């Protein structure tokens, strides 16, 4: 909250444990930064609120996001053309989500960004809201979403009609010492192990059917790559045992090698989705992926940002 009692988004600088400084950011400051970067696409400044706020605050969030969108649009230099994705908010209120979508669709934007997801809503609520919003947006314009990242969530969003994602999911897994191992190919599923461990065995080492925990002592002498057959640099050159050693001796290289694999694996997942859409087999791919994961115990969809 600033001196006039107005709530503004904040960019916060943190040291390892403490708040160093916080900058309040309004449309003018925000557009100064956007215009300095000259991006191909940019997202208007939203006033996102978590799912548990009162109805009044949620209505204010929708009004303010629309007002800021207009201000942002008026501050984009004409020579760059229209590259703005207007943010649709509304939290868990279907009426507010629809109002936000309908109003944003009347603005001269290049596409839409669905904001306010991954802020406490459950997966069932998210699916209903996403579908309701997308029916109100013109089909020919790009639709972007941030705040979700689990593979099942991505498939749900693609099924609903989302085109573009940004996610911190690979980074969060890397930070925790995990490597993605979920399957990517319907026809020729890659193996993560010579003899597949049970869900219980994976859980004991801190992993599940989607990822393995490289901190675990289970990988101390494991000379296999993170995923057998994976073509990333890490899997071609290094073993689980080596990465386990790097993590346990606090070597920074562990995070670098894990990030290389996780980013590669995640991008391969998106490649597989695009391929299935091209072949008109997206629904088969989604059903196969979901059923494979359910068989081996799928983790619950997240309520927080990924
Ligand atoms: Zn790899």
UniProtKB/TrEMBL annotation:
Pfam families: TGT. The lineage of its organism: Eukaryota, Viridiplantae, Streptophyta, Embryophyta, Bryophyta. Residues 23-294 form the tRNA-guanine(15) transglycosylase-like domain. Transmembrane segments: none annotated. This is tRNA-guanine(15) transglycosylase-like domain-containing protein. NCBIfam families: tgt_general. It comes from Ceratodon purpureus (Fire moss). PANTHER family: QUEUINE TRNA-RIBOSYLTRANSFERASE ACCESSORY SUBUNIT 2 (PTHR46064). One of its GO terms (biological process) is tRNA modification.
């Amino acid at each position: 909250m600033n001196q006039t009692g107005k709530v503004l988004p904040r960019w916060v600088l943190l040291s390892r444990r403490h708040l160093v400084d916080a900058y309040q950011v309004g449309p003018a400051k925000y557009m100064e930064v956007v215009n300095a970067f000259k991006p191909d696409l940019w997202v208007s400044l939203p006033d996102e609120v978590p799912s548990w706020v009162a109805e009044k605050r949620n209505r204010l969030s929708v009004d303010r996001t629309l007002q800021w969108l207009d201000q942002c649009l008026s501050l984009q230099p004409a020579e760059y053309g229209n590259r703005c994705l207007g943010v649709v908010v509304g939290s868990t209120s279907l009426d507010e989500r629809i109002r936000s979508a309908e109003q944003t669709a009347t603005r001269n934007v290049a596409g839409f960004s669905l904001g306010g997801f991954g802020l406490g809503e459950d997966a069932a609520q998210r699916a209903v809201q996403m579908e309701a919003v997308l029916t109100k947006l013109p089909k020919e314009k790009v639709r972007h979403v941030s705040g979700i990242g689990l593979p099942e969530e991505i498939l749900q969003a693609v099924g609903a009609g989302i085109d573009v994602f940004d996610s911190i999911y690979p980074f969060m897994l890397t930070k925790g010492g995990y490597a993605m191992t979920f399957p990517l190919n319907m026809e020729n599923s890659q193996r993560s192990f010579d003899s597949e461990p049970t869900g219980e065995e994976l859980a004991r080492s801190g992993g599940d059917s989607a990822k393995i925990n490289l901190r675990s002592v289970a990988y101390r002498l494991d000379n296999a790559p993170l995923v057998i057959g994976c073509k990333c640099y890490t899997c071609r050159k290094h073993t689980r045992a080596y990465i386990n050693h790097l993590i346990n001796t606090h070597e920074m290289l562990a995070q670098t090698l894990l990030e290389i694999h996780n980013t590669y694996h995640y991008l391969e997942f998106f490649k597989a989705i695009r391929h299935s859409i091209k072949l008109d087999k997206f629904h088969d791919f989604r059903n196969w992926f979901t059923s494979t994961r359910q068989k081996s115990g799928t983790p619950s969809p997240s309520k927080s940002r990924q």
